[in-house]
Specification:
With 477 residues, the protein is mainly alpha-helical. Helices cover 65% and strands 6% of the residues. The chain is built from 18 helices and eight strands. A three-stranded antiparallel β-sheet has the order 2-1-3.
Length: 477
């Protein structure tokens, strides 16, 4: 009897190992899916122990074989071929359906627009710019290419990748990219009515996301381990989506559309980040990389929001973005719980904030091409960067700051400090010239010119932080 038992254990361990290898899983992958230790899996395959009934049921669902087949160490003759689950058939059907939608979209009317509205504001002569139906522009070639090739690529990877990891990631990123393209169109002031083209595009996105859901929903899925996802994390992810989705509809004021290309890029990341946070807690993705992305995105969102508040008075979208950042902060509190945060430890972070916000402001001033000041006299004129005469001095601001950042990243501390001092001195001189010529001159009012004062304010705040830290250090000594 003992010999028979040993033989049965040997057959079972070899069969379990064969099934695991067939499904391209490591012992650790299997352990993560079943929420057990890799040592337990190793014992099964060494024959020192066998799975209990619960584990046998879980293994049968995962490998799509019966418990009896695992015990008998033999798959029945009529089921030797890989089973195609109902979910797989539906997913492949959805890929075929979205391919049909993709082929149709470029050849039909996309939306109806009021062409009196342009990208920035409007003209007051609607007779010249009638309401017209338009097709998807050929300039949106990346959208057309993505729509056509995505279902073909996903169909191939659905067969090759047994874990379906690539399908889930690619579908999610592509879906968010298409949402980032579609919602700004629907929220634009020139949008009048939907045509079949955009309706098909919305259906395409819904079917694409549905295919991802069908892949990741099964409880014993090789990709996602739901048991690691706590209820509070579900609430955080849901709130991030709820706050981020309506953003394109809020960037309008008195008929002016402020949602530009750079905002679409940020919008993409605000939608992508909740999915990354979901994967952070349910997969083996290193959490520190997603935490770093969360911090960087928060800083960029804060800086761009300040620009919109000062320049355009867009308070509602700014409020939504700040709520988004606060929710991100709540999610980031866990990594810092066990770390002792001191005033001194905040100094490196504060210099990074100064760097990022200052560069954001400079890039905005160089790329926006808006007026900086305007005169309030009888013959009011707008003053642009090229009209300043000393406007080229802004390039020296950027160069000095970038050089300082490069030396700091290279850990050349002394040289970096010298470059930061030179940058601060130059910013002070530049700001003084602006104040003398425009700010203290009652003939001028500021518009985008107020952005020039963000870097000096940040420098002053950093110096205050630095001085407080020095005082506290001496007090402790």
């Amino acid at each position: 009897m003992k010999g028979a038992k040993k033989k049965d254990n040997k057959q079972i361990r070899l069969f379990l190992k064969e099934l695991r290898i067939k499904h391209k899983l490591t012992q650790k992958d299997l352990a993560d899916i079943l929420v057990i230790t890799p040592q337990t899996v190793s014992k099964w395959e060494l024959g020192t122990s066998i799975p209990n009934l619960d584990m046998l049921l879980s293994l049968s669902k995962l490998y799509k074989v019966s418990v009896d087949e695992i015990i008998q160490c033999e798959i029945k003759q009529e089921e030797k071929y890989d089973k195609i689950s109902i979910e797989n058939i539906i997913v492949l059907g959805l890929y075929l359906l979205i391919l049909g939608l993709a082929i149709a979209i470029p050849f039909i009317n996309f939306i109806i627009v009021d062409s009196s509205y342009l990208e920035y504001g409007w003209f007051y002569n609607p007779e010249i710019f009638p309401i017209i139906p338009i097709a998807l522009k050929l300039s949106s070639w990346w959208v057309i290419t993505l729509l056509l090739f995505l279902p073909v690529f996903l169909s191939v990877t659905n067969v090759i990748d047994k874990k379906k990891t690539s399908n889930v990631i690619i579908s999610m990123v592509a879906g968010i990219s298409l949402i980032t393209f579609t919602l700004p169109i629907l929220s634009s002031p020139m949008f009048i009515n939907a045509q079949l083209g955009i309706i098909f595009l919305i259906l395409y996105i819904l079917f694409l996301l549905l295919s991802s859901v069908l892949i990741i929903v099964p409880i014993k899925n090789p990709v996602i381990n739901y048991k690691l996802l706590k209820p509070e994390k579900i609430i955080v992810i849901s709130l991030l989506f709820a706050v981020a989705l309506p953003l394109p509809f809020l960037y309008h004021s008195h008929g002016w559309n402020y949602f530009k290309i750079q905002d679409q890029v940020l919008y993409f990341f605000t939608l992508l980040l909740p999915i990354l946070i979901f994967l952070k807690y349910t997969t083996k993705i290193p959490q520190r990389y997603i935490n770093i992305l969360s911090i960087i995105l928060s800083l960029v969102l804060i800086s761009t929001t300040l620009i919109y508040i000062f320049n355009s008075g867009l308070l509602i979208p700014s409020l939504f973005i700040y709520i988004y950042v606060i929710i991100l902060g709540y999610d980031l509190r866990d990594p810092f719980k066990k770390k002792k945060i001191t005033f001194k430890s905040l100094l490196p972070l504060s210099i990074i904030i100064v760097d990022l916000l200052s560069i954001t402001v400079y890039l905005y001033l160089l790329t926006n091409h808006g007026d900086l000041f305007y005169s309030v006299g009888m013959y009011g004129t707008n003053i642009f960067l090229e009209d300043l005469g000393f406007g080229s001095m802004i390039y020296l601001n950027i160069i000095l700051l970038l050089v300082a950042i490069v030396f700091r990243l290279a850990k050349l501390k002394r040289i970096s400090q010298v470059m930061y001092v030179l940058w601060a001195v130059w910013v002070t001189y530049f700001t003084t010239v602006l104040c003398v010529r425009f700010v203290f001159n009652h003939d001028y009012h500021m518009t985008d010119g107020e952005m020039f004062f963000v870097p000096p304010i940040l420098i002053v705040l950093y110096l205050i932080t630095f001085i407080i830290n020095k005082i506290l250090t001496k007090t402790k000594m």
